């Protein structure tokens, strides 16, 4: 948790002023019972109206100063808490953006969203309340005890006994509920994950009439979450009634003792009222402190969860070849040197002994059955994942020797899932190249066969809704291809990015890509041979192995798997 407090460094002044003004408010509040005692013993006893009015004015002044101090403290506490959460959320987002695919897969999207939202909100509330109450409540509790000693030593012993008992109750609840609140947040992750999956796959769920099963799954997990929340809530809820019981027993003892002392002439009626007021102040503050402890327990559990994300680091590359290999002797532009890939936590290899080379400007088709490793192979080129064995060379250098930004500037990627962002068409296209001119944008749109789509949506300033839901699947694919072409990449990876296109549009797209093949090396991942049959080279994958490589005609003659895929596609 201490590591997270570094995000308060820009709010040091606020972190000092907020508790300082709360302390000032507390000191003024501690004077109120003494003024009341004075009013009872002197004003009321002597029927001195002028004295009562003067002391009443003092009470109003104390209340006014206390209110101003409280509002000022709240302002500084809120400013520090909101600034802290904003800085922490930004740092967490930056860290997540820097994680590689392996770590994002391991942690999970749903839990990352929860930790960036709900957990950081809990931390913000915790910081706010700590700055406001963490010093005020102890000062009131111990200050009231000290003031009680100045009134009567024997009566003050009641305070000495009651406070440790109350502290034991409060801290017992805190340490007992902290691990439970962590489990609550974990179950919240699960509920969020189910909700997210259902919203993303709502069409599939309805198509297969799986609503009842999904409702049952959500119901079970939601009930588990609410059941745990109720259980930990019951434990936390014990704090207030137990606190009230202890304090009220102490007040009963004070009234009994005070009555005897007043009857004996040792204490005045005003002093007994002051003692009861001090005990009541302690009651109020301990109730606040109990609530603070519960909130702080939640914040600490959330802080541990946020910190655990920061502790996730990208694995270091075991072997990095930093020297540039000689570019003489017709060295290939891209080379896979006996590459193996095993995903973290997976039992078997996804890719095994992948060995091939590609010359600059070649068009390479990659084909195979579902799960054969096509996407895994092309994801190694921009180093989304790192090879577990073997090496990959681009332009004579091991990909591990590249800075990520340097490497990915060379590459344009069109992933399997066509993703567009809320904004305009121009905004989305400029992700590929922020400096692109309108002429560049239209050129890329023409190459990707998306020009008519954009014209039909009102031009480059046409609106794109979240996830591009106002475009069809084929339109989204063509726009994502245009986005990749904008940057004029040395390597273009089309990962099954024409699956939603009709054959005529796909053919026009392939013909257009030929015009850039002199400057761009193209990888086309597809499940149909018509998309790659004109490639310079085709690689056939089967269960993570290379089952064949060559031209379309060569593979039809010599590769059974390729022939089966081709025949299936032409039926």
Task: Describe what you observe in this structure.
The two termini are 63 Å apart. A hairpin with a 2-residue loop joins β11 and β12 (545-550). The strands form 3 sheets. Strands 6-9-10-3-11-12 form a 6-stranded mixed sheet. The chain has a 4-stranded antiparallel sheet with strand order 2-1-4-5, with no helix packed on it. A two-stranded antiparallel ribbon has the order 7-8. Helices cover 62% and strands 11% of the residues. 33% of the residues are buried. It has 2 domains: 8-308, ABC transporter type 1, transmembrane domain (ABC transporter transmembrane region fold), CATH 1.20.1560; 334-570, P-loop containing nucleotide triphosphate hydrolases (Rossmann fold). With 571 residues, the protein is an alpha/beta fold. α1 packs antiparallel against α2 (49-98). The protein has helices spanning 12-44, 49-98, 101-107, 109-133, 136-151, 153-200, 202-207, 211-237, 239-264, 269-310, 374-379, 404-409, 425-429, 438-447, 451-456, 473-485, 503-514, 552-558, 560-570, and strands spanning 334-341, 351-358, 363-368, 389-394, 397-398, 411-414, 423-424, 463-464, 491-495, 521-526, 537-542, 545-550.
């Amino acid at each position: 948790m201490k590591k997270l407090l570094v995000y308060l460094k820009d709010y040091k002044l606020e972190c000092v002023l907020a508790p300082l003004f709360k302390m000032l408010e507390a000191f003024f509040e501690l004077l109120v019972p003494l003024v009341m005692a004075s009013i009872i013993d002197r004003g009321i006893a002597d029927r001195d109206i002028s004295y009562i009015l003067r002391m009443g004015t003092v009470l109003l002044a104390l209340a006014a100063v206390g209110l101003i101090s409280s509002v000022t403290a709240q302002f500084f506490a809120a400013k520090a808490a909101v600034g802290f959460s904003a800085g922490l959320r930004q740092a967490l987002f930056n860290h997540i953006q820097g994680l590689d695919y392996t770590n994002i897969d391991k942690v999970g999207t749903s839990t990352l969203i929860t930790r960036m939202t709900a957990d950081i909100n809990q931390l913000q509330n915790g910081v706010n309340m700590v700055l406001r109450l963490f010093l005020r409540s102890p000062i009131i509790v111990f200050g009231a005890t000290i003031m009680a000693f100045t009134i009567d030593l024997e009566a003050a012993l009641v305070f000495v006994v009651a406070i440790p008992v109350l502290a034991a109750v409060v801290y017992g609840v805190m340490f007992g509920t902290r691990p439970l609140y962590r489990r609550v947040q974990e179950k919240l992750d699960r509920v969020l994950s189910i909700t997210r999956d259902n919203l993303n796959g709502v069409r599939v769920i309805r198509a297969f009439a799986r609503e009842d099963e999904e409702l049952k799954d959500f119901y079970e997990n939601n009930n588990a979450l609410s059941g745990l929340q109720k259980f930990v809530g019951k434990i936390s809820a014990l704090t207030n009634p137990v606190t009230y019981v202890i304090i009220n027993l102490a007040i009963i003892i004070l009234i009994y003792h005070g009555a005897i002392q007043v009857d004996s002439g040792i204490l005045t009626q005003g002093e007994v009222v002051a003692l009861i007021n001090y005990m009541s102040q302690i009651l109020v503050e301990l109730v606040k402190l109990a609530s603070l402890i519960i909130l702080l327990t939640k914040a600490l559990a959330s802080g541990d969860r946020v910190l655990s994300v920061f502790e996730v680091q990208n694995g270091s590359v075991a072997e990095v070849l930093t020297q540039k290999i000689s570019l003489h002797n017709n060295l290939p532009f891209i080379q896979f040197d006996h590459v193996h890939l095993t995903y973290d936590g997976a039992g078997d290899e996804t890719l095994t002994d992948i060995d091939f080379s590609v010359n600059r400007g070649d068009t390479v088709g990659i084909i195979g059955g579902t799960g054969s490793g096509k996407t895994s192979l092309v994801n190694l080129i921009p180093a989304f994942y790192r090879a577990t064995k073997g090496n990959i060379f681009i332009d004579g250098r091991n990909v591990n020797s590249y800075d990520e930004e340097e490497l990915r500037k060379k590459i344009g990627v069109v992933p399997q899932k066509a993703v567009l962002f809320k904004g305009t068409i121009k905004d989305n296209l400029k992700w590929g190249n922020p400096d692109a001119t309108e002429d560049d944008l239209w050129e890329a749109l023409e190459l990707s066969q998306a020009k008519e789509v954009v014209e039909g949506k009102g031009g480059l300033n046409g609106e794109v809704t979240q996830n591009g839901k106002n475009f069809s699947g084929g339109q989204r694919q063509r726009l994502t291809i245009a986005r990749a072409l904008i940057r004029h990449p040395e390597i273009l990876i089309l990962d099954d990015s024409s699956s939603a296109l009709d054959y005529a549009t796909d053919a026009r797209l392939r013909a257009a890509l030929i015009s850039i093949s002199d400057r761009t090396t193209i990888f086309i991942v597809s499940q149909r041979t018509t998309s790659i049959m004109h490639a310079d080279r085709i690689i056939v994958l089967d269960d993570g192995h290379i089952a064949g490589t060559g031209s379309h005609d060569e593979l039809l003659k010599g590769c059974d798997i390729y022939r089966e895929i081709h025949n299936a596609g032409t039926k």
